[in-house]
Every structure is written in structure tokens, then in C-alpha cells.
Amino acid sequence: MPDGRRAKGAVRRRALLEATLRVVGRDGVAAVSQRTVAAEADVPPSAVLYYFASVDDLLVTTLREVNDRYCAELAELPSVEALAAHVAALDPAALVAEYELWLLAARRPDLRSELTRWDATVDALAARLAPDRAETVAAALNGLYLRAATTGVDAEAALRVLRTQD
Amino acid sequence: MPDGRRAKGAVRRRALLEATLRVVGRDGVAAVSQRTVAAEADVPPSAVLYYFASVDDLLVTTLREVNDRYCAELAELPSVEALAAHVAALDPAALVAEYELWLLAARRPDLRSELTRWDATVDALAARLAPDRAETVAAALNGLYLRAATTGVDAEAALRVLRTQD
DNA sequence: CCGAAACTGGAGCGCTCGCTCAGGTAGTTT
DNA sequence: AAACTACCTGAGCGAGCGCTCCAGTTTCGG
Which residue ranges does the Swiss-Prot or TrEMBL entry mark as DNA-binding (chains A, B) (predicted)? Predict the structure, then answer.
């Protein structure tokens, strides 16, 4: 029988993770605090440290979840055209949040594995969609992501960049 | 006659800017505070707010200086080969610092101009060194920078990525 | 229906933060 | 040398921080 107590807790826990991601996207990793996340999720501050061992734990858990999501999304793309459309459809604010977390992972040895996971996913995608020029496509994709985070990228331009040999 | 007092002040001001960049590289933008920078530059904390209107002003000034330096460096590269060598020679820690500042600029409207300045410099370089495939080279260069910040990139691999058509 | 377990939330501790300010020090001018 | 002024600084304020603690509430199994 499902325990109603645990179920209720799980809902709050998830709400906190989503609130954290929103705070990161809006104001950056530095703005993530027990009190700001609690306010964003509309729970009392003490709830944050009931569901997570520390504020840092909350942040790291959020990072892993986001990485999971992005990697899964990339793995399902069937073609270079779909990839270009994917890049063009990304929300700049969400990408900025992603880079905030990327930077956090780059700085901390214990999160290095998340970084290599992301790199490996991009490399695998490039090798799958463009085996003869995988290195360039992987680099160009990373470059497109960066550009998409600021000025945005439209699908035609993305496709032009990714189809490097035509 | 030059006022010795003013000259001494200028030296301290510069020391604070360099200390700020070191702190950003080592511990991130979030670690930049009046007290940490003062300790890094070996000046009393109050000196920080004597030379800069606020801690934020110090950070923004540092960002503009770093951007100046990077843009000037790119503008002088004579060939794709030199560009590949340049990327391979970059220090990962310094690149992480650069991305910290990039992210700061991405989030703040008043710093958007620094971002477009960087993008324009990269685009101009790509158009100069590889006119027939500028968009791809610009994206690939940004991708290489990102990779260089974590795992590092060797010169041969960078050249392979940048010479997209061979 | 009752004890246990999961959950809730407010109070508050020790700490660092950005910033202000009154006053001290040292180089310049007369 | 005295007056002036630009430069410099330690002390301290109010605020927000992570985190602990514990008394209260809800929901469960037996």
C-alpha cells in the first residue's frame, strides 16, 4: 500500500527542485539560498533542509536532474535537421541556467562526472548523425548552444552551421 | 608635476582588478566580496570601496578589462593555424573565469554590449580567416573554447575541427 | 484507538555580507 | 613650518546567510 505521508513529501521535494531551477534561471546559482528557494516553492525555509541534507545538496541534485533531461533529449534526435530545430527551439533563459550549472560542475571535482557525461552525449550524437565530421559537428553544436543562450539561433542558420560540408 | 599620491592610488586600483580576476578564476564570481578581494590584493577591505563605487562596480570593471584583452588577442591572429594554437594554449582555469564573467554579462542588460562585442569579434575573425565558411568556424571556435575550459584541447584536434572542409 | 513515524514550521545561533563614516596619515602648496 | 587637501583605514551597522533545534500536526500500521 502506498504511504500517503511519503507521497506528500515527494511532491514537496519535487516542487523544491523545480523552484531551484527557476531561481537559477532567473537570478543565477549565487541566488540559490534556503530562503529564496523556499519562497519560490512557497514552503517554509526549514522544509528545504528537511528534504535535502543541505542547500548544496539541493543544488547538486537539481544539476543532475537537468543533465539527465538534456542528455535524454539529445539521445532521441533522429537527424541533423531535427537537431537544428531543437537548438532553435531552446529558451535562452533556460540555457543560461544550464550554463550556470555547467560552470558549477566545471569547478567542482565531485561533479566532473556530470560534465563528461554531457560531453560524451554530444560526441555520441555527432558521431551518430555525422560520422565523417563528428569532431566539427560536436564543436559547432556547443558553439550554437552558446549563441542560442544570448541572441538566439534560428533553425535555418543552425542547419547551415551543422551541415558543414555542403 | 605628477602627484605621487595619485600614482600610488592607480597602482592599488590595478592590483585590485587583478586580484578580482584571480578570485573569479579560483572560486567564481560568487566568491568576489569586498573582504576576499581585499585579502587577495593584500589591502584593507575599506580600500576596495575607496577605489570602486561598489563591489559590483569592481566586478564590472574587471569584466570589461578581460573582454578588452581577449578581443585584442583574437584580432591579431593571422591564420587558422595560429588560432588553433591559441586555443590549445589557453589555461582551463582562466577560461572558467572568462565564462563566469560571460554569464554575468548574459544576465544583465547593462552588460549586454560586452557580449555582443565578443560575438562580433569572433564573427569578424571567422570571416577574415575562413570567408567561405565563417558561420561554422565561428560556432566551432566557441565550441572549442567550451571544451578547452574543461578537458583541454590539443592544437592538432583544434586545427582538424577548424579546417572543416578538408 | 493508540503509539509511531513522517512531516511542518518558527525561533534563533554564529557568521559573512555590502556599505558608511569619522578620523588619521602623508604629499603638496604657500 | 604651517595650512591644505587628497588619500587612506578600522570600527561597526543592518541584513541575509546556512543550519540546528524542537514543539506541534498529520497520517500511518496494528
Answer: 33-52
Q: Which of these, A50, A40, A130, A44, lies nearest to A82 by C-alpha position?
A: A130
Candidates B107, B136, B151; nearest CB to A140: B136
- End-to-end CA, chain A: 60
A44-72 confidence digits (pLDDT tens): 999 999 999 999 999 999 999 999 999 99
CA–CA distance, B19 with B22 (Å, rounded to integer): 5
- Note the pLDDT tens digit of each residue in B40-92: 999 999 999 999 999 999 999 999 999 999 999 999 999 999 999 999 999 99
CB B114: neighbour CB atoms within 10 A? 22
> In Å, how far are A56, A64, A96 from B100, measured between CA atoms?
19, 20, 11
Give the model confidence (pLDDT) of B88-107 as tens digits.
Answer: 999 999 999 999 999 999 99
Residue A10 sits at φ, ψ, to 5 deg, of -60, -35
Task: Flag residues 53-72 of A with CB < 7 Å from strand D.
Answer: 54-56
Domains of chain A: 4-162 (1.10.357.10)
How much is the pLDDT for B95?
A: 95
Interface list for chain B against chain A, based on CB atoms closer than 8 Å: 27-30, 96, 99-100, 103, 106-107, 115-116, 119, 133, 135-136, 138-144, 146-147, 149-151, 157, 160-161, 164-165
